[in-house]
Amino acid sequence: MKKILFFLIILFFTSKTYSQCCSAGGAIGGSSNVGTVDKQNLRWTGFYRHSISEDYYRSSNIETPTGVFLDKAYFNYVGSTFAYGVTNRLTAELELGYFLNKTQVYNLPILDNVSGYGLSNAVVFVKYNLLHNLANNIDYTAGLGVKFPFPINSKIEGGYSIDVLPTTGTYGGVAHSILSKKFPSINFRILLINRFEYNTVNNSDLNTSSNKDYQFGKTLSSSLFLTKMIVKNLTGIVQLHHEYRTHDKKHDVIEKNTGGILYIFSPSLNYTFLKTWNISIAYDMPIYRSYNGKQFANKYSISASLTKQFNLKKKEQLKSI
Questions:
Q1: What global pTM score does this model have?
Q2: Could you give the CA distance from residue 51 to residue 42 in angstroms, rounded to a whole number?
Q3: Residue 94 belongs to what H/E stretch?
Q4: C-alpha–C-alpha distance, residues 82 and 21, integer Å
Q5: Which domains, and CATH codes, for the chain?
Q6: If we measure between CA atoms, which residue out of 318, 307, 320, 314 comes closest to residue 9?
Q7: Phi, psi of 123 (to 5 degrees)
Q8: Is the four-CA dihedral 38, 129, 198, 305 of positive or negative sign?
Q9: 225-258 per-position pLDDT tens digit
Q10: Handedness of CA 152, 153, 156, 161 (dihedral sign)
């Protein structure tokens, strides 16, 4: 139970879609944020995220646009992760997600909204607990993963914009690490999560040839979590998230209005019920940004998740434990 609570509370937070409006790809990187699962246990997590963008930024300053411009952009995303404990230290995980919509609304009513929907990039992950120090209450877990797209199910309506694609249309790699330190006497934990993402060049015909030879920038992010039990079954979490993203490229030429630096403050709550179920809610608020060029930026995001862990060991095995 304690492991479920501990790893659930950090489920929401290393999304790569903060920086550039409704950038293509998964809305939440649930597979990168959750630790290992006990041997022959299966953990299921369902999650939802809503995000909205309303302002143009040039570097760190809001810029008032002229002419034809975006009035707002938003997306709604649902997904699931399935994690299986191969051993007590080795976990294999699959993350699947679907964009109900990724929508851009223009300032002129005569212009149609641009909207995309469909399956996002899936992620297959392998994680290993490298350090489990009971005496000092320190854990360190590292993992590697592969991202792959589902181009057949991706749809675009009202025109074309690369920012509303539900998938990058390319394969990619992910590496991450989780370092945690707990203080049992005061029910307090500190966690540091680092994540790196790389996307290959898109050589497919996903939706439109305009997306060919496009490469999304590399992303490096770090998240610091402070978690504290408030009352029985209720935990409060505060997160400071830092993200650095390099420029995107098209035909190997830099797209100047892409990439940058972002800091996000995220308070959240986790509640345990019926002993094995956990529900969490989170609010993500950008507190500092420094974009390359001019970009339409995220205003806030809200998230929710539900988690359940299943023990798949046979009854005979459980009796012998």
A1: 0.83
A2: 29
A3: strand 90-106
A4: 28
A5: 2-320 (2.40.128.130)
A6: 307
A7: -130, 130
A8: positive
A9: 999 999 999 999 999 999 999 999 999 999 999 9
A10: negative
